[in-house]
Amino acid sequence: MEQATPSGPTYTPISGRPVRWGLLAAGGIARSLAEAIAAVDGGEVVAVAARDGGRARTFADEFGIPRSYGSYAELIADPEVDAIYISSTHPFHRDQALACIEAGKHVLVEKPTTLTVHDTEAVLDEGRARGVLVMEAMWTRFQPVVLDALARVRDGRIGTVRSFHAAFPIPVDYDESHRLFDLDNGGGALLDLGIYPVTLAHLVVGHPTHVHVLGSRVATGADSLAALQWMTTDGAVVQVLTDSLSHGSTETIVRGTEGSIHLHGPVNNPTSFTVRRGDEEELVEGGDRRGYQHQVEEFHRCLAEGLLESPLAPHADTVAIMTILESARRELGVRYPQEDAPLHT
Q1: Which of 319, 301, 291 lies closest to 83 in space, CA to CA?
Q2: What CA–CA distance (Å, rounded) separates 228 from 247?
Q3: Rounded Cα gap, residues 24 and 110, in angstroms
Q4: Rounded distance between C-alpha atoms, residue 191 and residue 328, angstroms
Q5: Alpha carbon 41 to chain centroid, angstroms
Q6: Per-residue confidence at 9, pLDDT binned at 50, 70, 90?
Q7: For 128-132, which contacts have Cβ atoms below 8 Å and span 24 or more sequence positions?
Q8: Which residues contact 217 (CB under 8 A, 6 or more apart)?
Q9: What is the mean pLDDT of residues 131-142?
Q10: Residue 6: what pLDDT?
Q11: pLDDT score of 342
Q12: Cα gap 237→31, rounded to integer Å
């Protein structure tokens, strides 16, 4: 590693050879990222780790990964690994990310980065201090259809934004042992589901001056329903709903003084959008929709340029969005047993 300098890269950019990936955890999301890495140029998975060594070996055999480990520490210590994707459950992200950073690894950490604002700041600050790239794996931010819609909003295609509405309900059969309802394992609709519409609202409309919250919890204490409403400094109103127990549409609407944009399909992965202005209506198809591949390509691009954060997913936005989520769940009376610090804004 090169020493950090104010005007240049803080590490030797990775170009002219593949980025060597390690996968920390071998679940379904790790599988999706392994497939994405294999489908794009510039990277290869060289190692995978799971708490169960047999599971790691099975995963490695399936994807042709040369090394597998039965402990995360072995993966983190592997000198042939450049970057590590962390896809364990939320409560473990902080310590795992910090261990990777201390070992000089670049880190792509599954959303949410950690359970709390305090821990998220600790991870991002340490990444900067150590001179490595750290990025939250919020794949929605890198989808071309989202970036296209955002560009039209920022170009004034619908005038001044006045309101934003998005709902993201995903029905899950209630089971207190299910991770979504288990506080010990970071359960709750806000961090798993609500992070998507909140991220999209923050990206398109902006940060709140204050947040109003309504919602409910299940017997375990985890939030299952949350409705957030906020106003931005520019006077726009945001309404976001997430629910882990109900069915319904996930369509997203941005309204402005001269028109509106309707994003179709899931909030986290829109399929297309419609721009309406007066009697004019334009349907914009999603086009290049390649799932996790877009965020992998952005991570590779950042490494090739020696960046410490992605301009498409800046650290300040990651912290700001976590602040909204943490404020909302505290309003709902949800507190994780791992929390050891008050809300930090």
Answers
A1: 301
A2: 18
A3: 11
A4: 10
A5: 22
A6: low
A7: 128/308, 128/309, 128/315, 130/1, 130/101, 130/102, 130/104, 131/1, 131/2, 131/3, 131/4, 131/10, 131/11, 131/308, 132/1, 132/10, 132/11, 132/101, 132/104, 132/105, 132/106, 132/107, 132/308
A8: 223, 224, 332, 333, 334
A9: 98
A10: 36
A11: 54
A12: 38
Give CA torsion, residues 52, 53, 54, 58, to 10 deg. 110
Helix (H) or strand (E) holding 327: helix 315-331
Q: Token digits for 58?
A: 């099975």
CB neighbourhood size of 223 (10 A)? 29
Residue pair 242/193 in contact (Cβ under 8 Å)? The answer is yes
May I ask the CATH class of domain 19-137? alpha beta
Its pTM stands at: 0.95
251-267: b (≥16 Cβ within 10 Å) or e:
bbbbbbeebbbbbbbeb
Residue with tokens 């792509």: 108
- Going from N- to C-terminal start, the domains of the chain cover 19-137, 144-288+322-331
The pair phi, psi for residue 175, each rounded to 5°, is: -150, 120
> Are 289 and 271 spatial neighbours (Cβ–Cβ below 8 Å)?
yes
For position 143, what pLDDT does the model report? 97
Top CATH class of 144-288+322-331 equals: alpha beta
Please give the Cα distance from 122 to 116 (Å, whole number).
10
Q: 3 pLDDT exceeds 50?
A: no
Residue that is written with structure tokens 């209630």 in the block = 174
Residue 341 binned pLDDT confidence (cut-offs 50, 70, 90): low
